[in-house]
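wait is this the right file?? whatever heres the structure
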């Protein structure tokens, strides 16, 4: 079991940057693959990015590739999402999530634990 607490987010202008963080409890953070998802008003929750247990493999949705960077620091039990060149269509509630699966997945049902969510709003 792992508890996830998110921080960061807020309101920025288009073209700006934000950094989201997700801190995990416990001493087995490195056992989990981690991911970021987002949900905009009236839409389904969608995959944003994922990272392997040791951080050596990263995966991105096409919509954010080249703009967002996912990273983790297992010594600090922390997952991060650096968001650059933000667009109004990036506006959503962002969630970090942990998966006990052995392989990468962009489907939310394979993630077992979720953060509380944090709002990101990008203005024109």
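ok assuming it is, sequence goes like this
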């Amino acid at each position: 079991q792992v508890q996830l607490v998110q921080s960061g987010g807020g309101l920025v202008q288009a073209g700006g940057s934000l950094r989201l963080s997700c801190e995990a409890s416990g001493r087995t953070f490195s056992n989990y693959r981690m991911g970021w998802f987002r949900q905009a008003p009236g839409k389904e929750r969608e995959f944003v990015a994922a990272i392997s247990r040791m951080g050596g493999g990263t995966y991105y949705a096409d919509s954010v590739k080249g703009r967002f960077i996912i990273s983790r620091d297992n010594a600090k039990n922390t997952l991060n999402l650096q968001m650059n060149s933000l667009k109004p269509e990036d506006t959503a509630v962002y969630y970090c999530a942990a998966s006990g699966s052995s392989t990468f997945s962009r489907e939310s049902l394979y993630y077992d634990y979720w953060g509380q969510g944090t709002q990101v709003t990008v203005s024109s």
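The two ends are 40 Å apart (CA to CA). so i think its the right one actually
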